[in-house]
Structure formats: C-alpha cells, structure tokens
Design goal:
Mean pLDDT: 84
Largest sheet: 4 strands, mixed
Number of helices: 5
Number of domains: 1
InterPro entries: Thioredoxin-like_sf
Structural class: alpha+beta
Strand order of the largest sheet: 2-1-3-4
Order of helices and strands: HEHHEEEHH
Protein name: SoxS
Shape: globular
CATH superfamily: Glutaredoxin
Helix content: 25-40%
Length: about 140
C-alpha cells in the first residue's frame, strides 16, 4: 500500500502502534569518550602508542567508543563541554554530546585505566557491556 492510498485511520493506527512500541523501550543515549588533542602533543602521541591500538578491543572502548576532537579546529557543534578544554589530551565522557565527566592530561597507562574505568563504571552502559560479555 502506498502512503497516498492509506486512509487517515490506518495512518493514525500505525502511528499509535509505533508510539506504543517506543514507550515500552527506554531511549538509548550515545556514550562516547572524546579525546581532545592537538598536533605536536607529546602526551597524545604516548596515548596513541600505549592505549589507542587496544581501546576498541576493551570493555571500556566498547562502552564508550573514542571520538577524536582537534583543540585547534572549530569544536564540533554537536558537543557541549562544561568548559572549553585547555590541555591536551583531555578525555571527556560524552552522553549525547554533553559532557558528563572529564580527565585532563594523560597520567600514564596504569593510572589512565583506573581513572577512566571509575568514570565508566558509574554509567548504565557499563553493566550492559558486562551482560553482553556473559559476566
């Protein structure tokens, strides 16, 4: 049936059915880890060497995929920071583009995992990632 041939009653029923289905399902917000960086940042290079290759393979990386943000370019219009980042790297936990957590600087591999993990463990996606892994 083409949309032009649908009666208003059928369209209203389809719309109501869709809304009823959506009401039973919680909206899923997008969680990302924004990495604010700049060319020439030695700590960004170190993070790229130590963490970047394994990030997407980790529970942390699956919970909050990485989004790179260039501090020297125009900041993305779909991201709202609590305050403009000044240091690189700055790791910003984003929910639907809104900042909900921040780690300024790269404290080294050992401290990084603990600090980022503490932020992520407060998010509902963390438990969902655990369930997805059978844990």
């Amino acid at each position: 049936m083409t949309p032009g041939l649908m009666t208003p009653g059928i369209r209203a029923w389809i719309c109501a059915a869709g809304l009823a289905l959506m009401a039973g399902q919680p909206a899923r917000a997008d969680l990302e880890l924004g990495m604010v960086e700049r060319v020439g940042c030695a700590y960004c290079v170190l993070w790229d060497r130590e963490i970047a290759p394994i990030w997407p393979k980790t529970r942390e990386g699956r919970t909050a995929p990485l989004r790179r943000i260039d501090l020297d370019a125009n900041l993305p219009g779909d991201v709202r920071f609590a305050s403009r980042p000044r240091f690189t790297p700055t790791f910003v936990l984003l929910r639907d583009g809104l900042e909900i957590g921040r780690l300024e600087g790269y404290p080294g591999e050992d401290f990084f995992w603990g600090l980022i993990g503490a932020m992520l463990q407060q998010q509902p996606e963390w438990a969902q990632t655990d369930e997805d892994e059978g844990g």
